[in-house]
Amino acid sequence: MTVSKFYEIKGEKLIRKRKFCPRCGEGVFLAEHKDRLSCGKCGYTEFKK
C-alpha cells in the first residue's frame, strides 16, 4: 500500500486517514487489522472493541 492512500486532500486541507503511533510519534502510522491497530516499528497494539 502506498503512503498516498493514508492522506486525503479536501480543498486546501490535508486529512490523515490513519492514526499515528503514540510511542513513535507523528510519521509512523498504525496498521489496521480486523480486530486491532498495531505499529510495525515498536510493536504497540490497540485492540478494537
TrEMBL record:
Cofactor field: Zn(2+)
Keyword field contains Metal-binding: yes
A Pfam family reported for this protein in Swiss-Prot or TrEMBL: Ribosomal_S27
Cofactor notes: Binds 1 zinc ion per subunit.
Keyword Zinc-finger: yes
Residues binding Zn(2+): 21, 24, 39, 42
Top-level taxonomic group: Archaea
Residues spanning the membrane: none
InterPro entries: Ribosomal_eS31 (IPR002906), Ribosomal_eS31_arc (IPR022845), Ribosomal_zn-bd (IPR011332)
A GO cellular component entry from the record: ribonucleoprotein complex
MF terms in GO: structural constituent of ribosome; zinc ion binding
Keywords assigned: Metal-binding, Ribonucleoprotein, Ribosomal protein, Zinc, Zinc-finger
Gene Ontology BP term (one): translation
Gene3D superfamilies: 6.20.50.180
Small ribosomal subunit protein eS31 domain sequence ranges: 3-45
Family that this chain belongs to: Belongs to the eukaryotic ribosomal protein eS31 family.
Subunit structure: Part of the 30S ribosomal subunit.
Protein name per UniProt: Small ribosomal subunit protein eS31
Encoding gene, per UniProt annotation: rps27ae
